[in-house]
Amino acid sequence: MDINLESLNWVIENKEKLEEQNVTIYYFSLTTCPHCKKGIKWLLERKVGFKWLYLDKLPLAMKNSLKKWIQAKYDLPTRMGTPFVIFRKNQKEFISNGYDPSYWASKI
Hints:
- This is Glutaredoxin domain-containing protein.
- By secondary structure, the protein is of the alpha+beta class.
- Helix content is 36%, strand content 25%.
- Strands 1-3-2-4-5 form a five-stranded mixed beta sheet.
- It is globular, with a radius of gyration of 13 Å.
- The N and C termini lie far apart (29 Å).
């Protein structure tokens, strides 16, 4: 199974900046996750453009499919953490499986 990230129902933050910057950021979070909230705040404070969604607001089948797809596609050695962030830059992808602002800064 392959999932097209662009087809998901993203919330877009700083759309103008997202269109200008040379990286597309996909941010997966949970409504109950304090690290997810800190990560969104961190990105907003830096006026970074990004796309995000709450996994726990998706239909259960979609959430499970998406988590399985991420686990397989990115060959995660552990389960998918939150926030889970995909950085697409120059046709390459980098991931962060958890809150890691120093790593994020190196990818923005």
